[in-house]
Amino acid sequence: MDIVSLTIDQVRDGLRRREFSSVELATAALRFAREENPKTNAYLTFAEDRALEAARRVDEKLARGEDPGPLAGVPVAVKDVIVTKGLRTTCGSKLLAKYIPPYDATAVERLEAAGGIILGKTNCDEFAMGSSTENSAFGPVRNPHAPDRVPGGSSGGSAAAVAQGTAVVALGSDTGGSIRQPASFCGVVGVTPTYGRVSRYGLTAFASSLDHIGPFGRSVRDAALLLQVIAGRDPLDSTSAEAPVPDYLAHLDGDVKGLKLGLPREYLKDLTSETGGLIARAVDTLKKLGCEVRDISLPATDYAIDCYYVIATAEASSNLARYDGVRYTFRSSSSATLSDMYRNTRGEGFGAECKRRIMLGTYVLSSGYYDAYYLKAQKVRSLIARDFTNAFSEVDAIVAPVSPFPAFKIGEKIDDPLAMYLSDIYTITGDLAGVPCMSVPCGKTTEGLPVGMQILARHFDETRMFRLADAFERAGGAHG
Amino acid sequence: MKITEDEVRYVADLANLRLTEEEVRKFQADLDEILVHVDRLKEIDTSNVEPMAQVLYEAEETATLRPDRERPGLGSQAALANAPFSGSGYFKVPEVIKR
User: Fold this and answer.
1) CB contact A375 to B (< 8 Å)
2) Alpha-carbon distance A295 to A267, whole Å?
3) Interface pTM (ipTM) of the complex?
4) What is the mean pLDDT of residues B44-48?
5) Domains of chain B
6) Per the structure, how many domains does chain A have?
7) Per-residue model confidence (pLDDT) at position A280
8) Taking a contact as any Cβ pair under 8 Å apart, which residues of chain A between 35 and 64 contact chain B?
9) Is residue A367 situated within a structural domain?
10) Would you call B34 and A421 a contact, using CB atoms and an 8 Å cutoff?
11) For A220-234, A295-309, A448-462, B84-98, which range has the lowest pLDDT when averaged over its residues?
12) Domain that holds residue A231
């Protein structure tokens, strides 16, 4: 058993053939994750007791001859913005350094019910706000492929853990690219499902109309299986969709002949040359597989960054209002009045990026600016969504880069918020339109930095997206 | 200039954020740069375009409604467990109104 490259299928086969027990695997995986963690700082909290208890349950079911579930024994990492009952959930924030949630997120409940073993909680930008995981109150995460570089963000810890081999799969969250961009930077598969495909119950709210939970894996198959387990209607999230969840794995047959793909010209102009070259090579591979690639236009793309940073910060400024020193563990020590207590707690508790976004969001919602910024951005969002509707009337899926450049150096963009925001330029459109999208590795730069190709599909058409990504992967995608 | 230091202080007040003077200066510059960029939204014609508040897709009219049945809540002990100060089943906070 090689923990670093373990797949879900290997875990299932190993358990069935009694090569190892679930407890043995969990013990080994925890030991390995603890040993390796100083290299990346991917995990913030290890869940030893919970993991071993879950593993014992899997072993008991196997001993009784019962089905232990599709994720039985699989070591999973969970981003620390997703709540876990009785297990510290910090959201990467000083404010929640000691927060112990009283309930489990639906996605967590489902993955554990399917036999998954949560090893621990992963580092992220504070309240998922950032593109590099440098905004964590608990120190940055290092990219497993280059320790002086960022893993991307905000789900940098989850992406790094899967890339490093300290988890087989992981949960992340994506509001503007926070799953796909770190997946691209770390050379793993990352999926942002259709908005409403996965319940947001227990996902700490950043921008509710844009927030998604989604999976990371080292293969399309593993990521698809994790999505399969967590997807579907949840009465506890009124925005979760009724739409039935298809059997994703049954459609991974490699047949993509005749699939019509759109290559949006607006996504190709700001690329670094190496990223552009790798995307062009990936497109050639897709053509060889029999896909028909055509040039398309998504004209509102140029305004997506501006639209996103108005809507996301407006929603964030409301969602983060709850961290006021009353309910959530951290309170500034000396305040004479309630009002001072709110102000001091939030002033001392939030990091710079959260404050910046709360300020921007409060500004765009404030009297006199609402129409010019917030309402205008919501209208532009309609145009961005319309672009996708139009494109999907002529193509089955869209392929594009994930990020204009590969992983950047730690510290390179942290003092320039606008430059950091612009690194999300190709990922935010998918969140604004609510369409499913993913990053699949498509090669490495000469420096050895991974680059991801993005695939976007129609609402609830994850099936076709996975089939294409899987066919690309089988064709040697990342290795040309 | 899109935003002044005084406006930064005003917005911080609305957001219940205590900022240091250094933060006020930093955020004035950051927000100004971001707002100048965001101003590009004005270039795009949105007449006759409806605002989009939520991702929309084909679904039943009542798809998102669940049966209105009571179910157990958290209970005050669990709800108070993470409070920095609590007692007698309540959250404790500093003085709200001067007597």
Assistant:
1) yes
2) 11
3) 0.94
4) 95
5) 1-44 (1.10.20.60)
6) 1
7) 95
8) none
9) no
10) yes
11) B84-98
12) 3-251
Pick the residue from chain A with its C-alpha nearest to B95.
A337
Q: Is the pLDDT of residue B17 over 60?
A: yes
pLDDT per position as a tens digit, A150-197: 999 999 999 999 999 999 999 999 999 999 999 999 999 999 999 999
Interface of B with A in 56-75 (CB under 8 A): 56-57, 59-60, 63-66, 74
At B40, the pLDDT band (50, 70, 90 cuts) reads: very high
Type of residue at A464: R
Predicted local confidence at residue B61, as pLDDT: 65
Are the beta carbons of A344 and B18 separated by less than 8 Å?
Answer: yes
Residue B88 to chain A, least CA–CA distance (Å): 15
Q: What is the dihedral of CA A408, A412, A415, A416, to 10 degrees?
A: -60
Which residues of chain B make contact with A309, given a CB cutoff of 8 A?
A: 34, 38
Window A:260-289, CB contacts with B under 8 Å: none
Write the CATH number for A39: 3.90.1300.10
- A367 is known as an active-site residue: no
Whether A451 and A438 have beta carbons less than 8 Å apart is answered as no
Q: Which residue has the tokens 């590795």?
A: A441
Q: Is A23 contained in some domain? A: yes
Cβ separation B15–A362 shorter than 8 A = yes
Say if CB A134 and CB A125 are below 8 A apart. Answer: yes
pTM score over 0.95: yes
State the pLDDT at residue B62.
Answer: 63
Q: A375: which chain B residues are within 8 Å (Cβ-Cβ)? A: 51
CB contact under 8 A, A241 and B59: yes
Asked if A183 and A215 count as a contact pair (C-beta separation under 8 A), the reply is no
* Ranges assigned E (strand) in A133-291: 169-174, 189-192, 212-217, 260-264
> Of the listed A21, A79, A93, A423, which one is catalytic?
A79
List strands edge to edge, sheet with A75-79.
A43-46, A117-122, A75-79, A169-174, A212-217, A189-192, A437-444, A450-457, A397-401, A260-264, A292-296
